[in-house]
Specification:
heterodimer, A: about 250 residues, mainly alpha, MetI-like fold, 10 helices, about 75% helix, B: about 325 residues, alpha/beta, Rossmann fold, CBS domain Like, 6-stranded mixed beta sheet, 14 helices, 13 strands, about 25% strand, membrane (chain A)
Chain lengths: ~250, ~325
């Protein structure tokens, strides 16, 4: 029962979310009390389903790109030949993180124009750090005896990376990706200030027309997405890590 | 055969291994003994080029080890280390199959080899093949680690404190297993240990190292009888020396005609075992039997004590 309950709650949230973005008008009575002057209780300037899918697409694209670059960079600077680039890449990635996404948007718009692109750039830069840091930690703290055995058994550097280092680092890298995705899901909403099609549109429309129901709808969908995706990735991580069993569980 | 010729490794100018020369004969076990920091592990790791020598040559069966790429050299040399170093994300079977897979064996041959090794180590293939390393006990992990090192049927096996993490009971069993396997496959073994007892038990020859230098390289009896330096003598431990000396030989040559009372010992038992049994049971003689249990005669306390004296130089 204890294990069943959290799963049931998540399943319920998922069902509720799907029903809400496909048939939002079913929920009109729920949001009605939040509106004034007969304003529409449900977002009516576009399909919530389309916006949700576009929102997910921009986050997915940015995260995939950030993962490729961050993991690639982490691999590069943990090879003997790339070690001297470690400080440089670290500060580059840190800049990406400390630069506020709003500022990135403001700077990117003149360069690439309005729309999806500046949002992608901002999310990409913002997502780099967690993935890079985690990949770096994972690749630099691999158990010594295991690495020694991998070398001693005659694996080439490349075989060692593919067969031992990356599989062992995978759960930790995945944790970085998870953080990056969740940050991205929330941050993507501000992309709508530069005309990116995301769930931010719903929130902004609500703010402009002083309609709390809209703001809440946009916020709730993003929140539910974040929680569900976070949990799904955590589950995947546990699955990957269980096979290797952390040391404290062994014995 | 492994020929090591004036091998030196320097780190920042300081020699860690200093002009070591030694030859390990085929099908024998060489035990390298020394304290930590003596350079014994570095010496071992230079044989499969995990450490590149600063100077000197290593030849395996007459061939300079630098003639082929390091990773190919290593696939032909088994390597077992303390704490086993099993790949935690791979099953027992996948771990054992590491080198055969790298060498491109076909699947049927790999499966057969994995099962053969598991059976050799008394691990039921059905039960153990698909387990992960963390699901094994320490002793089982160690056995799988050695099985992995032996999987590609290497002529040479390098072992770095392979039994260091095991408790005494499992360690004795692991040592006996190693000797059985060495006799079965005829593998040449170079084993690093800090435990003189283990070196005497396993080694056909013992290399004693200190401060990067090879102090003495000789058969155990010779090391015990004529230690080359004070350091070697300290390492042997003067209090244990006669007993270690007795432990080197079986009973065969000290058996005499006659009868004795009590539990018999097999003729393959060491003289130390026999003496211990005599002292502990308060007897003066005990019966000796052959492998089949047929009586061969007896061995007396006096005969054993005579054998424990320092041999004439």
């Amino acid at each position: 029962m204890k294990r069943f309950l959290p799963l049931a709650i998540r399943l319920a949230v998922l069902v509720l979310l799907i029903v809400f973005i496909t048939e939002p008008n079913v929920f009109a009575p729920v949001f009605k009390p939040l509106t004034e002057n007969n304003a529409p209780p449900i977002y009516n300037q576009g399909s919530l389903l389309t916006l949700t899918l576009l929102h997910l697409r921009v986050v997915l694209t940015a995260t995939v790109a950030a993962t490729i670059v961050a993991v690639g960079l982490a691999i590069l600077v943990t090879r003997p030949s790339g070690r001297e680039f470690l400080p440089l890449s670290r500060s580059l990635v840190n800049v990406g993180q400390t630069f506020p996404p709003v500022a990135v948007l403001a700077l990117a718009v003149p360069a690439v124009g309005f729309g999806q692109k500046p949002t992608l750039i901002a999310l990409f830069l913002y997502g780099l750090l967690p993935i890079f840091e985690n990949a770096l930690t994972a690749l630099t703290t691999l158990p010594n005896a295991v690495m020694e055995a991998a070398r001693g058994s005659g694996m080439t550097n490349f075989q060692r990376l593919l067969r031992v280092e990356l599989p062992l680092a995978f759960p930790v890298i995945l944790a970085g990706i998870r953080l990056s995705v969740v940050i991205g899901l929330a941050t993507a909403t501000i992309g709508s200030t530069v005309a990116a099609k995301t769930l931010g549109e719903v929130i902004i429309a609500g703010l402009l027309s002083n309609n709390i129901a809209f703001v809440l709808q946009g916020g709730l969908i993003v929140g539910a997405l974040a929680v569900l995706i976070y949990d799904a990735l955590s589950g995947l991580e546990r699955l990957a890590a269980r096979r290797m069993a952390p040391k404290e569980e062994a014995g | 055969m492994i020929e090591i010729e004036s091998l030196t490794k320097r780190y920042a100018g300081t020699p860690v291994v200093d002009a070591v020369s030694m030859t390990v004969d085929p099908h024998t076990i060489a035990a390298i003994v020394g304290t930590s920091g003596s350079g014994k592990t570095t010496l071992l790791r230079m044989i499969n080029r995990l450490v590149e020598p600063s100077e000197g040559v290593i030849r395996i069966d007459g061939k300079d080890t630098r003639e082929m790429p390091a990773h190919e050299l290593r696939r032909g040399i088994g390597y077992a280390i303390q704490g086993h170093g099993l790949f935690p994300h791979r099953t027992v079977a996948q771990n054992i199959a590491t080198v055969p897979v790298l060498s491109g064996w076909d699947k049927a041959r790999i499966d057969a080899k994995v099962d053969e090794l598991l059976e050799l180590y008394q691990l039921d293939p059905q039960a153990f093949r698909d387990r992960y390393p963390h699901e094994l006990s320490g002793g089982q992990q160690q056995r799988v680690g050695v099985a992995r090192a032996l999987a590609a049927e290497p002529n040479i096996l390098l072992m770095d404190e392979p039994f260091g993490a095991l408790d005494p009971v499992i360690r004795a069993k692991a040592q006996d297993d190693l000797m059985t396997i060495q006799q079965r496959f005829g593998t040449t073994i170079v084993l690093v240990t800090h435990d003189m007892e283990e070196a005497i038990h396993l080694g056909d020859r013992i290399a004693v190292m200190d401060g990067g230098k090879l102090l003495q390289y000789a058969e155990p009896a010779e090391i015990l009888a004529n230690p080359a330096t004070d350091f070697v003598e300290t390492l042997i431990g003067s209090a244990d020396r006669p007993f270690r000396y007795l432990s080197l030989s079986a009973l065969e040559a000290v058996v005499e005609d006659g009868a004795a009372e009590g539990e018999p010992l097999p003729v393959s038992a060491t003289r130390r075992d026999a003496l211990a049994e005599l002292l502990w049971s308060g007897r003066n003689a005990l019966p000796v039997v052959d492998a089949a249990g047929a009586p061969l005669g007896r061995v007396t306390r006096e005969a054993l004590l005579e054998q424990a004296a320092r041999p004439a130089a």
